[in-house]
User: Fold this.
Amino acid sequence: MKVPLLDLKAQYKTIKKEIDEALIGVAESQGCILGPEVEKLEKSLCGYLDSKYATGVSSGTDALLIALMAIDIKPDDEVIIPTYSFFATAGVVSRMNAKPVFIDSDPVTFNINPADIKKLITKKTKAIIPVHLYGQSCDMKPIMEIAGENNLKVIEDAAQSIGTQYGDGRKAGTIGHIGCFSFYPSKNLGCFGDGGLVTTNDETLAERLKILRVHGGKPKYYHKIIGGNFRLDAIQAAVLNVKLPHLDSWTKRRQENAELYTKFFKNSGLSEEEGKLKYDEGNKVLLPKAVYKNQDLKYYHIYNQYVIRVQDRDALRKHLTENEIGTEIYYPVPFHMQECFSYLGYKKGQFPVSEWCAADSVALPIYPELSEEQIEFTVKSIKEFINK
Assistant:
């Protein structure tokens, strides 16, 4: 049985007619940059996310970059970010000639640990970028309280968490000053290339983001500030306008698939409970835990990835590959151990939780079209490896 990490063709088959008509519509209109499709998407996502303003941009990376530009990050300003994330989170800070200040992860969620933030704040600190990893929200209440006490801006990296609810019901990306989203094809809401979104509830920031998106020009060809080419293509917006109404049902399937994994892992004797942090006889596989899961929240976790922790991770991946089961590591090298950030002076062992996550974690297939038989086969293959 083949179990790919992701099967975008399976999703496309279910909405092929709608997608094809949308693509032809853009081709016939020849409105390729911004325009009605982008405006429709921005309006729809404002409603979906419960955000006052939304700006479609060229990628999730550019969403983060334009957010830093909007809050006027200067060279040598410090920005607190998790050391365990996709590279863009740190890369955009350095591109602004600012200094990334790394922080360790929470051992259960892999998200930023609010308890460590205060001791990292200096006179140069300007912002915090919490990353909602894998589809689960960071603990935003203490983060916003710390930011308020120290006059810091909060830019939420919600690239993997569109629609995710925090414990109080608010959507990830709408709690901080600016929220950043990615529509990379592998995301829960993905387009046919690169695309992103920036959200805010601040009218002044919203206007600044719109201007920065078009090289800082307003009116056209008149520039008081310098921006960039951060425009979202109409063809990507058209694809997203077709997909958005299906997003909630796809999220529900991902949640159901996560429940199936949990059931099969427990039934196999490989794990007793989600969120355990020790390998022992009852927990050979450490399962992810949805910390905000309760009867009041529908989108407590959207499972952009389903990430387990195992010993001998690399050997397990080899075994699963041989059984035609796709996996991925998100992420194998924390920022503080990346060669390009060696100038910052961090050392191995400085962020033990993040290093542990990087060494032991592996993502399993979780996409909506996955069958129960494929999930069961994946767990059986893992048990086969562990029993050896």
The chain has two domains: 8-245, 247-387.
